[in-house]
TrEMBL record:
<keyword id="KW-0418">Kinase</keyword>
<feature type="domain" description="Signal transduction histidine kinase subgroup 3 dimerisation and phosphoacceptor">
    <location>
        <begin position="190"/>
        <end position="257"/>
    </location>
</feature>
<dbReference type="InterPro" id="IPR011712">
    <property type="entry name" value="Sig_transdc_His_kin_sub3_dim/P"/>
</dbReference>
<dbReference type="GO" id="GO:0005524">
    <property type="term" value="F:ATP binding"/>
</dbReference>
<keyword id="KW-0812">Transmembrane</keyword>
<protein>
    <recommendedName>
        <fullName>histidine kinase</fullName>
        <ecNumber>2.7.13.3</ecNumber>
    </recommendedName>
</protein>
<feature type="transmembrane region" description="Helical">
    <location>
        <begin position="23"/>
        <end position="44"/>
    </location>
</feature>
<keyword id="KW-0597">Phosphoprotein</keyword>
<dbReference type="Pfam" id="PF07730">
    <property type="entry name" value="HisKA_3"/>
</dbReference>
<dbReference type="InterPro" id="IPR050482">
    <property type="entry name" value="Sensor_HK_TwoCompSys"/>
</dbReference>
<keyword id="KW-0547">Nucleotide-binding</keyword>
<feature type="transmembrane region" description="Helical">
    <location>
        <begin position="51"/>
        <end position="71"/>
    </location>
</feature>
<dbReference type="GO" id="GO:0000155">
    <property type="term" value="F:phosphorelay sensor kinase activity"/>
</dbReference>
<keyword id="KW-0472">Membrane</keyword>
<feature type="transmembrane region" description="Helical">
    <location>
        <begin position="124"/>
        <end position="143"/>
    </location>
</feature>
<keyword id="KW-0808">Transferase</keyword>
<dbReference type="GO" id="GO:0046983">
    <property type="term" value="F:protein dimerization activity"/>
</dbReference>
Length: 385
């Protein structure tokens, strides 16, 4: 891995601290900078001899101060480069006899080794450069006797503490991932149970109702019943059949354990089987979307397509789902027809748009529906960390 390879930028959020911790961190860094400057100017010898060591140490302290002050705002690449530069400057200054190096170098090593997303390999490359810089600087200052013992002792201690800190952070991350996996497993088990209950109760009941209405329609036809009565029977049968299809889709959604992309393809195929032309367009890595967010996006697509078939039969729909950095969005547009039934296209009352709004809001997102350029558009967005 090269030294310029950036780590994932979403980890910038990991450096955002509470106000109290931010102040404490700044105090510690400023104390370190002041101590390094004091140790640097304590260098013995004529100014012409010690000037290079002082200049390099002061530059390292300036970069250190800037890196500490702008810590949460730096990109991961800038963060790594800043501390790599501090490490290199401190090492060269140490070779020239700077006492401040005994503070600058250990702090840089502590930050580089103790930051989980900076790989040890990258730190070792910087360390190799620092060693080379130190040895080369010794060639230009052979008469200066650097005080290597304090630097060596502090480096050994810092490396040990940094590695322990990294191991503890890795263990905490593993524990968090385990908790997430357990929660997802429990959620899948609960969804499977709900699917079984829904199938056993609702689907069977509606299936029986459809059969009963078919039988009544046959009897009414045999007895030459009033055409208006038969029309009502058939209307009731259609409603029961639609309810049965909705129940089956709900069961399929609850049992769905595949990816979001697979779920979208399943919805497209189902719509195609019902004569509803649906195009699906995706962008980004959908597999990186958290399960709860993916479920909300899937629910929005399901609800929008169901209402499109009810209120604009024959109109085509287009689905677009995007997964960007810490954000996922969905947009379902349906051609002319559904806008005429805008009041009921996505009913409220906690089942249609109202229910989706609650679901999106619980995840920190928003969803809306309305007519745009002659189309009925449902669009939602959720940000996550």
């Amino acid at each position: 891995m090269s030294l310029t390879d950036p780590a994932p930028e979403h980890r910038i959020a990991d450096r955002v601290l509470s106000p109290g911790r931010t102040i404490a961190r700044m105090v510690v860094h400023l104390f370190g900078v002041v101590s390094a400057i004091a140790a640097t100017f304590g260098l013995a010898g004529p100014f012409a001899t010690k000037a290079p060591a002082i200049v390099l140490s002061l530059i390292a302290c300036v970069v250190w101060t800037a890196a500490a002050f702008y810590w949460p705002k730096l990109s991961d690449t800038a963060f790594f480069r800043a501390w790599a530069l501090i490490f290199l400057l401190g090492a060269v200054a140490g070779g020239l006899g700077s006492g401040g190096a005994s503070i600058i170098v250990p702090v840089a090593v502590f930050v580089l080794l103790g930051t989980p997303w900076i790989t040890i390999q990258r730190t070792l490359w910087v360390g190799a450069g620092a060693v080379i810089g130190y040895l080369v600087s010794r060639l230009f200052a052979p008469t200066i006797e650097p005080n290597d013992l304090p630097l060596l002792i502090s480096l050994v201690g810092v490396v040990g503490v940094s590695l322990m800190r990294r191991m503890a952070s890795t263990e905490r991350e593993a524990d968090r991932e385990l908790l997430v996996q357990r929660a997802e497993t429990a959620a899948l088990a609960e969804r499977a149970r709900l699917a079984r209950d829904l199938h056993d109760v609702l689907a069977h009941s509606l299936g029986g109702l459809v059969m009963q209405l078919d039988a009544i329609d046959v009897i009414a036809e045999a007895q030459a019943a009033d055409p208006g009565l038969r029309e009502r029977i058939r209307g009731a049968r259609t409603l029961a059949q639609e309810g049965l299809e909705d129940a089956r889709r709900a069961v399929a959604a609850l049992r769905e354990s595949g990816s979001l992309e697979e779920a979208l393809e399943t919805l497209r195929r189902h719509a195609d089987a019902l004569g509803h032309a649906v195009s699906v367009d995706t962008e980004g890595d959908l597999d990186s979307v958290p399960a709860a967010v993916a479920d909300a996006l899937r629910a929005a697509v399901t609800e929008a397509l169901t209402n499109a078939r009810k209120h604009a039969p024959g109109a085509a729909s287009a689905v677009r789902v995007e997964a960007q950095k810490q954000r996922a969005s969905v947009r379902i547009s349906t051609g002319a027809g559904i806008a005429d039934a805008a009041g009921s296209a996505i009913p409220s009352g906690g089942h249609g748009l109202g229910g989706l709004r609650e679901r999106f809001s619980a995840l920190g997102g928003t969803i809306s529906a309305g007519e745009r350029n002659g189309e009925w558009v449902v669009s939602g967005e959720i940000e996550y960390h």
